[in-house]
Amino acid sequence: MRLLEAFSVSSIPFLGCDYETVYHDLEGSIPRENVFFDSCDISSVIACEMICSAICHKINWDFLRQAVYQKSREQPGWLKPESLANVTANEINSLLIGYSKPERIRANERASLLREIGLLAKKCNGYEYIFLSSSGKVLPEEEIRKKLCECQAYSQDPEEKKLQLLFQKLSSYRQLASLGAYCKPTIDYHLIRCFLRRGLISPKTKLSLTFVLSPDIHRRESTVGALRQLCADVVIEISQYTDMSIKSVNQIEWVVGRSICVEGEPDCYLQGEDAAWARKKYNKCPFFTTCCAVNYNPELLHIAEPNYLGSSY
To answer: From 42, 164, 241, 264, which residue has the greatest number of CB atoms within 10 Å?
Structure first.
């Protein structure tokens, strides 16, 4: 509560705001997910997306998806519910071999999360029946949520980041498209960083400024949750102002935070390879002209990544 009150949230629109045009331009410009599982049957699609969403914390998203895709091509049997229900820490180490930050793998923890997903799929007689009726129709939201929350990966996340991430990713597949109606904001630290730099959320006390800029502060589940809630409110406001879906706005922020407004030194002038998609229409970050960090407070360019103690982030 102290942190919620220690930040101010900008109203939209604000002076110079061009969101009514820029978000619609970006919607047609952002690249597709680097790795998609659409060559698989629907059961395997769901299995792969559940695996990625369940164990994504502190692992590069593209690396994880490529690893899951490769293992699923080479060993399709590992996706079977009975196999996943018995997955071992050694298998997780093998899945994530070569990751640049091996101290983050935490194989025992990730294996435990995946075993619960395998058990749920066994209980439902297949991954697809977690989400679909016997006639192939998407189940009501609360029915799906109740099933997913039998797994710690989704039940222990107070802001539902992983659950909402799963809904967003699965709704990109034709058979599961109606899941898009269930989507709420999915807030990760890339998005938090972007909103802080752009001044959509601003620290207004010494407490909040230290929380944002100090690499030595330990962020707990509840304190990071406060920032995530503020960011979720902003996503909803942008969605309403632009008349775009929450999923579309969230995906735009997701891509910008991973390719332009990146950790460390942001690529404001789109010089890096990851920002190549944006150079087709822009010569600077699409949010450059109204960015607080660029135009008013360069200190925000150096936001510290969190020393995070939770597991759902």
So the answer is: 164
Question: Token digits for 20?
Answer: 């009514």
DSSP three-state, residue 118 = helix
What pTM does this model have? 0.85
Give the position of tokens 């360069």.
Answer: 298
- Ordered by start, the domain boundaries in the chain are 2-32+186-308, 42-171
SS3 129: helix
Cα separation, 77 vs 79, whole angstroms: 5
Tokens 């102002």, residue located: 241
Cα separation, 129 vs 150, whole angstroms: 14
Helix axes 42-54, 107-123, angle to 10 degrees: 140
Write the DSSP string, 208-260. HHHHHH-TTPEEPHHHHHHHHHHHHHHHHHHHHHHT--HHHHHHHHHHHHHHT
Q: Which amino acid is at 294?
A: V
Q: Do residues 153 and 54 make contact, with C-beta atoms less than 8 angstroms apart?
A: yes
**Can you tell me the distance from the alpha carbon of 145 to that of 241, in angstroms, rounded to the nearest whole number?**
28
DSSP class of residue 101 equals -
Determine the Cα–Cα distance for residues 65 and 20; give it in Å rounded to an integer.
32
C-alpha atoms less than 13 angstroms from C-alpha of 250 in its C-beta half-sphere: 23
Encode pLDDT of 252-280 as tens digits. 999 999 999 998 899 999 999 999 999 99
Residue 153 neighbours by CB under 8 Å, 6+ apart:
53, 54, 55, 113, 116, 117, 162
